[in-house]
Design a protein that fits this description.
DNA-binding, homodimer, Jelly Rolls, alpha+beta, 3-stranded antiparallel sheet, globular, Arc Repressor Mutant, subunit A, 10 strands, 2 domains
Chain lengths: 241, 241
DNA sequence: GCCCGCATTTAACCCAAGTTAGCGCGATGC
DNA sequence: GCATCGCGCTAACTTGGGTTAAATGCGGGC
């Protein structure tokens, strides 16, 4: 399996990815770097010269306040560029950390710049990928601002199921979810205690199981309904970009 | 004054914008469209063929839940593209509405596509502009998830002051803020009643005044400190992109 | 100069989520 | 085999922000 296959699946859910553009992408990659669980991949504010594609494991974007409060702003699954935005921003406004052991493929910014000069359609696909992040961010703002804790957790789980389905590593019934309740709390802006209460509630209603890092949802549509989940923000429409 | 001057100021705060790229941008614009206060500019889910640059007024991106809850996910000031991401996404996950009377310049996607084929550096600047939106979104997630109501409101005000300063329409002491308390509540994920309580508190501490659609902050640094505001997410660094 | 409608303000009461503290358990290590 | 440590879970109590409702202010239209 090539290191870009999962990314191609993700992009192919939104547009055609011609073979020559896949080649150009492959040519832009340099080494694959392994990280241990808990290890820092990118530190906030440091100048970046490469962007990184996740091929295995789970990665979080984390923002820290000076007094120790922390908020996860995005969780990345294989096939996601974890910091493609650093190609433009150069310095990130957040840390990137490995939640589980993970492998990341490096794409030097110099090679990405060349792609913008020779492959306009591929450039638009990469740009699209960062705007998908943006749509995900907006959904998280709504969850944090206007959804109840149970809706928030359920919504996040629905998002995970569909995103794993797109890259072929899960489906609407089950997907990996190798998080602690503390980390889930940091993603939802809740306390671990309350996350635990909400999980009890969702479990007792038979909406989900979550054991050994795997999420199982017997009835996706029911969970989606109680969580007010609408998949439109995932932009799963194949059309020319 | 050209319709792209404010955008050029915004971009020039992050990189050099050569004259020929400015010309290419000007050439891509078609008409300027006026909107009334409260008017809908973009409806969620409808296929878009143009993106729009705000030249005057205030614009909000709004996400609605089926039961009437609403969350503003971004507020746009002159010089912002309000829906450049529609160039890639084609269908937006949110509405765009005019908060005040506003004027928007249209950039057909066809012209933007040509820019991606002939002007790689300008393409990167436009891509950068959407990643700045993303950084703003992440800051809003932190505000909604981990900041107190007072910090949240203060943080948003600091963000406004600096963004207006960048385009030369305000400074750290004062800027336009033509919102109702209800709209501010929808931006912060609070109720109007609580927004009012928080504003009383901030006013009584002499941190700000807000009357007739104008915000005045006597001591920016003090407001920034109590709000835990760090301007890094605005990426105000001039370097090659 | 008087209405009307909307925005702001205040007050009383309520509840979803936070705080603090402690227990049980399984994995890890020596 | 035993100590340790992180994680999940529970309980008792507190609180920040929500809810509801009712005043008050105020700008624009005629």
């Amino acid at each position: 399996m090539s290191e870009i296959d999962l990314l191609v699946r993700k992009l192919a859910a939104r547009d055609v990815v011609p073979e020559d553009e896949q080649q150009a992408l492959r040519a832009a990659a340099t080494e694959t770097v392994p990280y241990a669980a808990g290890e820092e991949v990118v530190r906030e504010g440091e100048r970046q010269t490469v962007s990184r594609l996740l091929v295995s494991g789970l990665i979080a974007r984390v923002k820290l306040l000076d007094d120790g409060r922390r908020q996860i702003t995005e969780l990345h699954i294989p096939g996601d560029f974890v910091d493609l935005h650093s190609f433009l921003l150069k310095r990130l406004d957040h840390d990137v950390i490995a939640v589980t052991p993970a492998r990341l493929v490096s794409y030097p910014h110099e090679g990405l710049r060349k792609i913008t000069e020779q492959w306009p359609h591929l450039t638009r696909l990469l740009w699209l990928s960062t705007t998908l992040d943006g749509a995900g961010h907006r959904e998280w703002i709504v969850s944090a601002g206007r959804r109840t804790a149970a809706e928030h957790v359920g919504h996040l789980f629905c998002e995970f199921l569909l995103r794993y389905e797109v890259v072929g590593l899960g489906d609407r019934r089950r997907c990996p979810l190798p998080l602690t309740q503390q980390q889930l709390a940091d993603a939802c802006g809740l306390t671990p205690v309350h996350v635990n209460r909400v999980l009890q509630e969702l479990r007792h209603e038979g909406l989900l199981e979550w054991r050994a890092g795997e999420l199982t949802v017997p009835d996706f549509d029911r969970l989606a309904q109680v969580s007010r989940f609408d998949p439109a923000f995932l932009n799963l429409i194949r059309e020319p970009r």
